[in-house]
Amino acid sequence: MAKVYIDGQEGTTGLKIMERFEGRNDIEIIRIDEDKRKDPAERARLINGADYVFLCLPDDASREAVSFVDNDHVRIIDASTAHRTNPEWAYGFPELSDEHRKKIQSSNRVAVPGCYASGFASIIYPLVKNGIIPDDYPVFAYATSGYSGAGKKAIAIYESEDKPFEFDSPRQYALSQQHKHLPEMQAVSGLKFKPMFNPMVCDYFSGMVVSVPIQTRTLTKPVTPKQVHQMYMEHYQNAKMVEVMPLMSIEEQKSFFLASNTLSGLNKLQVFVFGNDEQILLCARLDNLGKGASGAAVQCLNIMLGIDETTGLI
C-alpha cells in the first residue's frame, strides 16, 4: 500500500485531492497534526516517510518542501507553478504525447499543469506539433474562469453577502501581460514567444473555457475547421480524460452557447472547434479544480502507480 502525504492539505487543491481519494484502499494517507502544519521539521519527517508527496503550496514553500527530501524513493507531485518549466521535471499532462506519459511513469518529480495552461496546451501543443501553426505564430488566448481558483481571500469576497457590485461582472485581470502561467504556456506548447493572454474571473464557483482564435489567412498553409478537428481527433484518440467534441455545422453553431461551468466537479477536458474557413475558434473546457488541478494530480499519481489512470476520477 502506497503511503501518500499532502503538504498543504487544507488548501483548495489539497482538499479536492482528498475528496478524490475517498473509497480507495490502495493508498494510506499520512496526516499532519493541525498545530504542526507549518512546522518545517514535522513536514520534512512526513515527506520523507511517504512514498508519494503532493505539494499544494505557494511556490516558495513548494521549493522548500522539495529541499526537505533526503529519501531517494520519495516521488513528488507538485501542484504549484514552481517547477512547471523545469525540464528535469515531468510535465503532468499525459495526453499531450507518449513522451509526456512515459516521463510521468518513470520520474520521481512531476509538475501538475496549471488550469489555464492545461486548456491552452491542449489546444496549442497539437497545432504546433502537427505543423498547423509555426512555433513563432502570434498566439492570442482568452479565458473565463470561476472564482474558486482566485484564492481564499477572493473566494470569501465572492461568497460574502456584501460583495462589491463589480464582482457581479466578469473581471479581466493580468492586464500587464505578465500572468504567472505565461512561461508555462509558452514552454510546454513549443512556442518561441509568449502568447498574449486575457483571463477573466467570473461570478460562479468553478469551471473554465480557454479560447484561441486563428485567422487562417495568416497561416502558411490555410486549413479548414474540418481538417483541424480531424487532427485533434487523431491526436487524442486514445485519451481517457480528453474528449474532442463533435464538429458542428454553421447553423448548429448559431444557436449554441458554450458555458464555462459545465464540467464543474469533473476530471475531464473537452476540445471544441468552431468557426469557418476564414476564422477558426478553438476552445478547451475543463474544471479548474479537476483536470486543471486536483484531478490532474491524482491522474499523475495513478500513472506513477502503474494502475488505471482514471481510478478515483470517473
Fold and architecture overview:
This protein is of the alpha/beta class. It has two domains: 2-113 and 292-305, Rossmann fold (3-Layer(aba) Sandwich); 115-288, Dihydrodipicolinate Reductase, domain 2 (2-Layer Sandwich). Helices cover 31% and strands 21% of the residues. The chain has ten helices and 13 strands. A seven-stranded mixed β-sheet has the order 8-9-7-10-13-12-11. Strand 12 (269-275) and strand 13 form a beta hairpin. The longest helix has 16 residues, at 290-305. The radius of gyration is 20 Å and the shape is globular. The two termini are 21 Å apart. The model has no long low-confidence stretch (mean pLDDT 95).
What's this entry about, in short?
This protein is of the alpha/beta class. 31% of the residues lie in helices and 21% in strands. The protein has two domains: 126 residues, NAD(P)-binding Rossmann-like Domain (Rossmann fold, 3-Layer(aba) Sandwich); 174 residues, 2-Layer Sandwich (Dihydrodipicolinate Reductase, domain 2).
Structural descriptors:
six-stranded parallel sheet, 2 domains, alpha/beta, seven-stranded mixed sheet, Rossmann fold, 31% helix, Dihydrodipicolinate Reductase, domain 2, 314 residues, single chain
Radius of gyration: 20 Å
Instruction: Quickly give the structural class.
Output: alpha/beta
Strand content: 15-25%
Helix content: 25-40%
User: Low-confidence stretches at least 5 residues in length (pLDDT < 50)?
Assistant: none
Q: Do you know the CATH topology of the largest domain?
A: Dihydrodipicolinate Reductase, domain 2
How many β-strands, per DSSP? Answer: 13
- H/E series, N to C? EHEHEHEEHEHEHEHEEHEHEEH
CATH superfamily of the largest domain: Dihydrodipicolinate Reductase, domain 2
What is the total domain count? 2
Main sheet record = 7 strands, mixed
CATH architecture of the largest domain: 2-Layer Sandwich
Strand order of the largest sheet: 8-9-7-10-13-12-11
The span between the termini is 21 Å
- The general outline is globular
